[in-house]
Amino acid sequence: MDQAPAMQPQRVIIPYRPRFPQTVIHPNLESHRFNVVVAHRRMGKTYLAINHMIKMAVNLRLPHGRYAYMAPLLKQAKMIAWDYLKRFTIPFPGRKVNESELWVEIPNCNGTTSRIYIMGADNPDAIRGIYLDGAILDEYGQFKPDVWGSVIRPLLADRNGWCVFMGTPKGQNQFYDIYLYAQKAMAENNPAWYCALFRADETGVLSPQELEDMRRTMSDAQFRQEFLCDFTASADNVLLTIDIVTAAAAKIFTPRDLQGSPKILGVDPARFGDDRSVFVPRWGLQMLNPEIYRKVDNMTLVGHLTRKVESFRPDMTFCDAGHGAGIIDRMRQLGYVDITEVAFGGTPIAPNQYVDKRSEMWGLMYEWFLLGGAIPNLPELKTDLVVPTFSYDANNRMKLESKDDIKKRLGKSPDLGDGLAVTFAFPVQPKDRMEAIAQYRQQGGVVFARQDFDPFKD
């Protein structure tokens, strides 16, 4: 590979001034190799994408850089991005523009040049045979599903190239899949991946008045998809919508608010090697931060669970019996008797309303959300909660989509969602209330206040 002396630094000012959330996104794109950005309409993602690519192309210290901005159709890519690319590269000395092949060439820090192509995913074979130092895949959900794996990814291998997947949701397609994959990678602290989702009611790019006007004139599904970035907007059989879950993530209750409410711990042990074992503590209307464990054996998980029970001191612990029988038996051997097995496929308390126990628990959790339930603002949790769909059987009973079907569809189980749902397995009374009732009965109706009781103690 021919090497040229590094170009002397030269100050170039381009007519681009990033705003929020672009100011948040740019540093992350520069520090991660693979990036997924879910953006509402009119957020300025194409502005961001073109300027990110220009900066990376100029700062490249390898010779003859090659970059590609790609939209679903070539005509669409030219309409959206070509003028931006030409406009923002005007200040660079020695710039070359090829109108017929849609590329711009600018100097880079290697002393050679970098070339940026505008391309369409409708003709991916046109890009085969070259290498890429970076790629922007805009509106990736509308690409042919094999473009990434069979075309783009191999082109990034030669020079450790980067990629940004961008777009607005359009159903649960490959863009949704790569978003879920990136979320999982971030949760596993994979430094190569970054993902973020930006809704119009959170960025401030559009005024509240404009949003409200669009909400009134667009269909609910259109508004949710285009401006609230709801991957499930086109589906009418999703139990928990992104609106419900997002509203719950914005609430926080204080210990005083929760005084007198039961403390419940939900345990959903891993089913397969890549699934997660989760502990989900819930205190009345407030779900607290979950604990997630991967690839741990049952006895190790029991050690973590005893520690959690000692610190959280739940009134009851509910555990999925299907894959937690050994955990439950060991906990009881250790003297932790307030643990109840829950058969997700078992008989519900209300068999006329629900097909099985898991459907009932999710149904009761849905009612809890409507009553004002609050959850931590964790992307992985919110994703799990909005994944399951539901249907009705011949007897008009609700049936939730099975974990196996979800895993086939998405490649992962909604373990955090099931961990919260299992806290609704059976009614639970706070131990202090039960003790007070027992004291009342023993003392002929007279209850003496407990001087050592501290409702704020964890």
Shape: elongated
The first-level CATH class of the largest domain is given as Alpha Beta
**What does the largest sheet look like?**
8 strands, mixed
Order of strands in the sheet with most strands: 3-4-5-2-6-7-1-8
What is the CATH superfamily of the largest domain?
P-loop containing nucleotide triphosphate hydrolases
Task: Give the class from helix and strand content and strand pairing.
Answer: alpha/beta
The CATH level-2 architecture of the largest domain is identified as 3-Layer(aba) Sandwich
Characteristics:
single chain; alpha/beta; Rossmann fold; Nucleotidyltransferase, domain 5; eight-stranded mixed beta sheet; six-stranded mixed beta sheet; disordered N terminus; Terminase; P-loop_NTPase
Structure description:
By secondary structure, the protein is α/β, with parallel strands linked by helices. The chain has 2 domains: 22-227, P-loop containing nucleotide triphosphate hydrolases (Rossmann fold); 242-431, Nucleotidyltransferase, domain 5 (2-Layer Sandwich), CATH 3.30.420. The protein contains 17 helices and 16 strands. The protein has helices spanning 22-31, 45-59, 74-88, 147-155, 174-187, 200-203, 208-217, 220-227, 242-249, 255-258, 298-312, 321-333, 357-370, 379-385, 403-410, 415-421, 431-442, and strands at 34-39, 65-71, 96-98, 103-107, 113-120, 134-138, 162-167, 193-198, 263-268, 276-283, 286-287, 291-294, 316-320, 339-342, 390-392, 398-400. Strands 3-4-5-2-6-7-1-8 form an 8-stranded mixed sheet, sandwiched between helices. Strands 9, 10, 11, 12, 13 and 14 form a 6-stranded mixed sheet that branches. Strands 15-16 form a two-stranded antiparallel ribbon. Strand 9 and strand 10 form a beta hairpin. The longest helix is centred in the N-terminal third of the chain and has 15 residues, at 45-59. This is Terminase.
